[in-house]
Each structure stands twice: as C-alpha cells, then as structure tokens.
Amino acid sequence: MYASFSEEAQKNRLEQLQAEVNELQKTLGENKNAERIVANHIQLLHRYNEAKDAAQILIGRLANLKGTTVRQIHEDMDLLDDDKT
Length: 85
Description:
By secondary structure, this protein is mainly alpha-helical. The chain has one domain (about 10-75). Helices cover about 75% and strands about 0% of the residues. Helix 2 crosses helix 3. It starts with 6 loop residues before the first helix and ends in a 9-residue tail after the last helix. About 0% of the residues are buried. Belongs to the SWI5/SAE3 family. It holds the Pfam family Swi5. Keywords: Coiled coil, DNA damage, DNA repair. This is Swi5-domain-containing protein.
C-alpha cells in the first residue's frame, strides 16, 4: 500500500530536493562531473592500497632479515596499524 501525498506536499518536497541538489552542486563545483570525481577517487584508493601492500611486503622482509616480527618493526618505526592518517 502506498501513502498518498497532496500535490502541494509533493511540490514542497520537490523544491526541497532541488534546493539540496543545487547546494551539493555548488559544493562540488558548477561544471564538475560527479562520476569522474568518484572514478578518480577509486583510482587513487587503488594506488594507495598498492603502495601500502608493497610497503608491508618490505616491512615483512626487513623483519625476516632482522629476525623479529612485523609488529616489532611497526613499533620500532612508530607506524600506526590503521589507515586514519
């Protein structure tokens, strides 16, 4: 069962949504393509993850050469074990 809305309520909601779209477009930039921005962001995340994976491989090899653990190398180098920075 669908709820029915008055024509005026629908018009008001449409105006609110259009105002929200306009505000978001201002924030994004007038002639910016949102899909292109998202695609670029995903590409940057892939590059970040590849670099992080390579660094972790090197840290693992360093730990092996030093005869210690990866955790100890992280502690020795003051590396955080999260992606917040």
